[in-house]
Amino acid sequence: MERMRVPSSDTGAGVQSVKGNVRTDVSVRFHECSTPPFVQGALETLYESPYSTLAQFQCKSGASLAHVHTYVADRAGKPCAILLFRLDGHVVKVLNEVMTIGGADIERFVKHVFEKFASASVIAFHAIRPDGTPRAYLCHRFDVSEDIVLSLPASEEEYVAALGKSTRRTIRYYSNKLKREFPSFRHQVFTRGDITREHVRAIVDMKAAEMTKKHRRSIVDEETVDQMVRMARSYGIVGIATIDGKICGGWIAYRVGSNDFMDMCAYDPGYEEFRLGTICCYLAIVDCIAHGGKECHFQWGQDEYKFRFLGVQRNLADLVIFRSPLSMLVHGGRFWRPAARHLQRKVENTAKRFRGS
Q1: How buried is residue 33: exposed, middle or buried, by Cβ count under 10 Å (0-12/13-18/19+)?
Q2: Where residue 13 falls among pLDDT bands split at 50, 70, 90?
Q3: Mean per-residue pLDDT for 231-235?
Q4: 220 to each of 48, 152, 203, 236, how far by Cα in Å?
Q5: Is the CB of residue 236 less than 8 Å from the CB of residue 272?
Q6: Is the pLDDT reported for residue 80 higher than 70?
Q7: Burial (Cβ within 10 Å: 0-12, 13-18, ≥19) of residue 84
Q8: What's the pLDDT score for residue 90?
Q9: Are 71 and 81 contacting, i.e. CB atoms less than 8 angstroms apart?
Q10: Burial tier of 219 (Cβ tally within 10 Å: 0-12, 13-18, 19+)
Q11: Which domains are delineated in the chain?
Q12: How many CB atoms are closer than 10 A to CB 329?
């Protein structure tokens, strides 16, 4: 297979790329074992995803990025791609997740990484939306999850008008019923530094109780709660619903740029007859609209309510790129087995839904 001819990947190397009929200068640099201060804000601007932020990388890495490298591609003096990665033996593991990246950006990154790190044989992306794949390399792409995304209009009125008649009726009827029977019902939104561990813990506990009632397990340990709190204090939006001052429902989301990512929505099972979970989810969407949000991400899980709220499925894929056919032969099995397990789970879940219908 013919290799793409690109200049050396040394820091500051210039690369000619073509977009349509316009040629654009792109410069590439590496920051080995470091993340410069500008990276945090630039990641937020480029990808608008909590899963491609330094806060998330630190949560997953135990608060240390000491052995993480930073790749930066600049176009016209501004970053057009920033990828953080770790070299694990012969495998380059990219930390950025749940974001869209162009095929040309991927190909440029792959070429430069393979040139700079001679020991690297494989580059692995997890749970991304690749807009194209490298043409100059052997690669393996398979769907591993999905993100259910709601594209938001400019106003709550426009959104309500777009909903199905049944969903509109449900929201209106149960909102009125809840306020009529519980005049003390309140919904308050907290952001970042105003979010407490007690807020997060209350929502997690309600979700666990809700899942138990449905004979399903919800496993959220204290370490996970701590990570949620840390993320919430960086990007968090938390809605708390109360009746007589007692928390009865709520939701946790992370806001990056113009995107909200719903992490958890829960309610006290004692209020199930009031469809409090549906009401809380609706209130979260309305808050995102009120702040000029463009998208509300319900994330993974093909729950029916996400589609009733007009979410659209976007698949998330793992992308594995091999330096050579030999690299694929040696390392391929490590990545194909997870793909096979994912396919098996997908078939099993489809069969369960079919039997339940």
Answers
A1: exposed
A2: very low
A3: 93
A4: 26, 30, 11, 18
A5: no
A6: yes
A7: buried
A8: 92
A9: yes
A10: exposed
A11: 13-144+316-356 (3.40.630), 153-293 (3.40.630.30)
A12: 10
Give me the DSSP letters along 279-294.
HHHHHHHHHHHHTT-S
Spatial separation of the C-alpha atoms in residues 313 and 237, rounded to whole Å: 23
Contacts with 22 (C-beta within 8 Å, 6 or more apart), sequence order: none
Residue 36 CA to residue 319 CA, distance in Å, equals 26
DSSP helix/strand/coil, 176:
helix
In sign, the C-alpha dihedral spanning 168, 171, 172, 177 is: positive
> Within the chain, how many helices (H) and strands (E) appear?
10, 14
Q: Do residues 231 and 59 lie in contact, with contact meaning Cβ atoms separated by under 8 Å?
A: yes
Amino acid at 305: Y
- Which structure tokens are listed for 130? 């690749």
Q: Please state the rounded mean pLDDT for residues 105-130.
A: 95
pLDDT in the model for residue 61: 59
CB-CB neighbours of 272 under 10 Å: 12
Q: Are 133 and 141 in contact (CB under 8 A)?
A: yes
Residue 332: how many other CB atoms lie within 10 Å: 16
pTM for the model stands at 0.83
Q: Which long-range contacts (CB under 8 A, 24 or more apart) does 212-219 make?
A: 213/269
